[in-house]
Design goal:
This protein is an alpha+beta fold. It has one domain (26-222). The chain has helices spanning 2-22, 42-48, 109-123; strands at 26-34, 39-40, 55-67, 70-71, 76-83, 97-104, 129-136, 138-145, 148-155, 159-165, 177-178, 187-199, 208-222. Strands 1, 3, 4, 5, 6, 7, 8, 9, 10, 12 and 13 form an eleven-stranded mixed sheet that branches. A two-stranded antiparallel ribbon has the order 2-11.
């Protein structure tokens, strides 16, 4: 009886530990825009491979949760990345990049450090080097719209992004698909159309504007 009771206690403890391990500690909305198409066909993707598409903008908007003990409810952070190759399927062709981080001005000093650590942990080698950290007022709007999810992000004169849902007029060759997966771990990701995405900062020694491309993803994250 004692042995059976002890096993029951151990199993209950294991189940409790397992439940804690899978419970997300931080969750929110995610948006990314690249300078290469992500919703496309092989012919168009091959035309960009190793020639362009080395730039990306990754946005995390935290709804609620903590990162290593620091509360981050309602805060946002952006990583603007310039990589050493086309930002395609990173599981097939890993990339390393430099990034400028734009951190929500509403974040306190401890929250700023937590957001930096969160981004580096989440993006991995895509952010092998942080070239500059900017603290700025971030206006992030990611919401469901007819046919999918749309997003709008603005950070003063540093960054401006506008996306819309894909429509029938956005098909060019008839065999498009989500050719490249999202750059980070995302749930319920859907491809979107980048009306424009502009980075005007100086930390990467390069600025760019993307417009009229099927190069965005929107989704959620829970880690």
């Amino acid at each position: 009886m004692k042995t059976s009771f002890a096993l029951t206690i151990l199993m209950a403890a294991a189940c409790t530990l397992s439940a804690k391990e899978i419970t997300p500690s931080i969750s929110g909305d995610y948006l990314e825009v690249r300078s290469c198409d992500v919703y496309t066909g092989p012919c168009l993707a091959n035309a960009e491979m190793n020639l362009s598409g080395k730039e990306g903008m990754l946005v995390w908007s935290v709804r609620e949760g903590t990162w290593k003990g620091t509360r981050l409810d309602g805060l946002s952070v952006v990583a603007v990345v310039h990589a050493n190759g086309t930002l395609g399927d990173l599981s097939y062709a890993p990339r390393q990049g430099k990034a400028v981080l734009i951190i929500d001005a509403k974040a306190g000093s401890a929250q700023q450090e937590a957001l930096k650590d969160f981004v580096r942990s989440t993006a991995g080698s895509l952010i092998a080097e942080i070239a500059e950290v900017k603290v700025a007022s971030l206006d992030v709007s990611i919401a469901k719209c007819k046919g999918g999810t749309c997003g709008r992000v603005k950070a003063l004169d540093l960054l401006d992004i506008s996306t819309r849902c894909l429509g029938g007029d956005d098909h060019l060759c008839g065999n498009e698909e989500n050719f490249y997966p999202p750059l980070t771990k995302v749930e319920r990701a859907s491809a979107a159309f980048a009306e424009f995405a502009t980075f005007s900062g100086k930390g990467l020694n390069v600025t760019w504007t993307v417009s009229g491309k099927r190069s965005a993803y929107l989704g959620t994250f829970a880690l």
